[in-house]
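Most newcomers find our protein records easier to grasp once they have seen one. Read left to right, the backbone structure tokens trace the chain's path through space. Nothing more is needed to start thinking about how sequence determines fold. An example says more than a description, so a record of this kind follows:
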Amino acid sequence: MTQKKFNCKQCGNCCLYACFDEVEEADIRLWEEKGRTDILDWVRRKPIGDGDYAYEVWIDPRTREEVDGCPWLKSLPGNSQHICQIYDVRPTICRYFPASRKHAAEIGCKGFEE
């Protein structure tokens, strides 16, 4: 049996329903190197001991409250497709989506369907 390859349908479910709350230090460094203060504004650095930090995301820069879903997901007008506004510098965890077929199915991702 041939394994179906993942083909993104731009449904946005990965960003709407599989949202995560932390990014890696490498993501922070990339955004700093690229001068992406617009993204860094949505990050909260939290000390976790021994000079290490956790980087919590998507924290509204105005309210400092966590938001539901990813603030960088944009709906395309006239259809049900979405695009990532930070695709070229998206977090590492986003680059590896979906982690598995099961993971995709759990959030309603149709990327493995015909």
